[in-house]
Amino acid sequence: MTSAALTGIAFALYLIAAVCYGAALFLRAPAAPANDDLAPRLVSRVGRPLLLAGLFVQFWAIGDWCLTTRHSPFASEYGTLTVSAWAIALTFALLDLRAKVAPVGAIALPVACLVLFWGALHARGPIASSPLLASRIVSLHVLAILASFGLFAVAFGCAALYLVQNRLLKARSVAGVFRRLPPLETLDRVAYQTVAYALPLLTLGLALGVAYAYSGR
């Protein structure tokens, strides 16, 4: 199976998982009390397995592309974007397994899908053959920055939900689906923790880039 086909499968898995995470909000809404227990089961039995399967398939696609082209994934726009999407999905998967903040997936996973779709559009794009890309330092530089972007994407999801819920609480108009959003304290804590990891990774990536630039290689 080609890397393009695997990327398409990963995209479909991410998209269906995003739908599951988003649907969990509505299934848990007070307007549907009979389905209150269905939401966590939908996420645990369908959403998370699909997300983990998508991560595996996309990792397979990236590895297949590297073996086929004998280049680093960062040698093309396609590879860089697919690794970015994988980093976003992986970051949310780890967060979800730890903090159980399913609503964030309704934002983070669509972002990963958009990035992956944009990368798939450039699957036939040019591949850079610069010796620069063969350096481990450069690969670590790009990987650290992309990992930080994945964390920032999850933090963005938490911040967006925080702003929505905070505004609704102040207006005393919280109803329906928004009654089941995570507490403000949880969203604030998760956003803080993800940014706390993202900034050092971004700093490390920039430092590696500067170090390589001044090494004269």
3D architecture notes:
The chain has 217 residues and is mainly alpha-helical. 77% of the residues lie in helices and 0% in strands. The chain contains six helices and no strands. Helix 3 (77-99) crosses helix 5 (136-170) and helix 4 (102-121) crosses helix 5 (136-170). It starts with a helix and ends with a helix. Mean pLDDT is 82; it is low at 30-35.
Sequence-ordered SSE layout with sheet pairings:
Elements: H1 3-27, H2 38-69, H3 77-99, H4 102-121, H5 136-170, H6 184-215
Helix pairs in contact: 1-2, 1-4, 2-3, 3-4, 3-5, 4-5, 5-6
Computed CA radius of gyration, to the nearest angstrom = 19 Å
Number of strands: 0
* Average of pLDDT: 82
Low-pLDDT sequence parts = 30-35
Summed up, the helix count is 6
Q: What is the CA–CA distance across the termini?
A: 37 Å
| Basic shape | globular
Helix content: over 70%
Order of helices and strands: HHHHHH
SS-derived structural category: mainly alpha
Percent of residues in beta strands: under 5%
Largest sheet: none
